[in-house]
Amino acid sequence: MSRTFLSVYLFASVFALVCPDSSELNITAEPGQTVTLPCAATNLNIAVVKWTKDGLEGYIMLYRDEHFENASQLPSFKERVELKKGWKEDGNVSLILQNVTTADSGTYECEVVQEGKKAADLICNITLSVDPAGGDSERTGGDKQGSRGHVGLVVFLALPIFAGWLIYQRKKNRSPPPPGAGQQLV
Fold it and tell me: What are the C-alpha distances in Å from 137 to residues 29, 105, 106?
């Protein structure tokens, strides 16, 4: 195995572990549960936080000008949503959605505007599936597809260890015999 390949492989492995997956997150819940849609801003100087849901005009939650805007909030989300406590200090703008219903299924987006900026940055894209209790869905109780990702990561990391072991075994079997090993004792 060449050193270049090994270097590239190690870099890619570390990159995959450290960098978040840019694909959307999927969460599965049952009606009546409280769900947290995880989202974190990298900059703590947050001026605006806006949560929306695809297919709906308006917003689920909007924070701006140092307060939450309730007047134009979508009626179906009133009294059911809040941001994670301490979000101003740590940038964790996760949305807590209480008493979910099947109507809450869909894709949610969180946009944040940093102080001093005019444009919003989309920082989270989350799909929520609310399946009726006792449904036939294989995914109830959590996102089972995420488990397959962990297995894939373990296999991905185990392959070079196995390849290294094979190379070591081959080199060990090819090494010349120690001096005097070919001499016969009289």
Answer: 11, 14, 16
Tell me the pLDDT tens digit for each residue of 7-32. Answer: 444 444 433 333 344 347 999 999 99
Place of tokens 């299924």: 105
Alpha carbon distance 46, 64 (integer Å): 9
Contact of 109 with 120, CB cutoff 8 Å: no
| pLDDT (tens digit per residue) in 125-183 | 999 999 986 554 444 444 444 444 444 444 455 566 767 767 877 777 776 666 665 56
Quote the CA–CA distance of 142 and 157 in Å, as a whole number: 25
Q: What is the pTM of this model?
A: 0.59
Six-digit token string for 43: 């900059």
Domains for the chain: give ranges and CATH numbers: 20-145 (2.60.40.10)
Q: CB of 73 within 8 A of CB of 60? A: yes
